[in-house]
Amino acid sequence: MRVERCRLAAGSKRKRTVEFQTDPKKADGCLSAYVGNLKWDVTETDLRDFFKSLKISSIRFAINKRTGDSRGFCHVDFEDDESLEKAVGMNQSELRGRPIKISYAVSNRG
């Protein structure tokens, strides 16, 4: 078996996805955080325990549509700005043996 990187057709205008070089800035009215580098089996209960002192309104896991498995990240919506700020301040804290990435969520809605 041979594995190659995906190549775009000549003349394609599609850009490669690039990881953030710096953490995203907080958008006006944002109360959501991106939480990444999660173990595949992390549950909502694990996250609620991790953020136990903060006010969470909802958690949305990214799921692989084909397999139904976790994609290793989620978005956490908080009830207030204070909870969001404290959560972002926990960036690189350890959850179940892994340092997790916590940053302001970026909306892809125009």
| Distance linking N and C termini | 41 Å
Radius of gyration from the CA trace? 16 Å
Low-confidence stretches: 11-19
Q: Give me the count of strands.
A: 6
Q: What percentage of residues falls in helices of 4 or more residues?
A: 10-25%
Element string (H = helix, E = strand): EHEEHEEE
In this structure, how is the largest beta sheet organized?
Answer: 4 strands, antiparallel
Average pLDDT score: 85
Strand fraction equals 25-35%
Main sheet strand line-up: 2-3-1-6
Principal-axes shape call: globular
Determine the structural class based on helices, strands and strand pairing. alpha+beta
Number of helices: 2
Provide a concise account of the structure shown.
With 110 residues, the chain is an alpha+beta fold. It contains two helices and six strands, in the order βαββαβββ.
Provide an overview of this structure.
The chain has 110 residues and is α+β, with helices and mostly antiparallel strands. 14% of the residues lie in helices and 27% in strands. It is built from 2 helices and 6 strands; from the N terminus they run βαββαβββ. The strands form 2 sheets. It has a 4-stranded antiparallel beta sheet with strand order 2-3-1-6. The protein has a two-stranded antiparallel sheet with strand order 4-5. β2 and β3 form a beta hairpin. The protein starts with 31 loop residues before the first strand and ends in a 6-residue tail after the last strand. About 8% of the residues have low confidence.
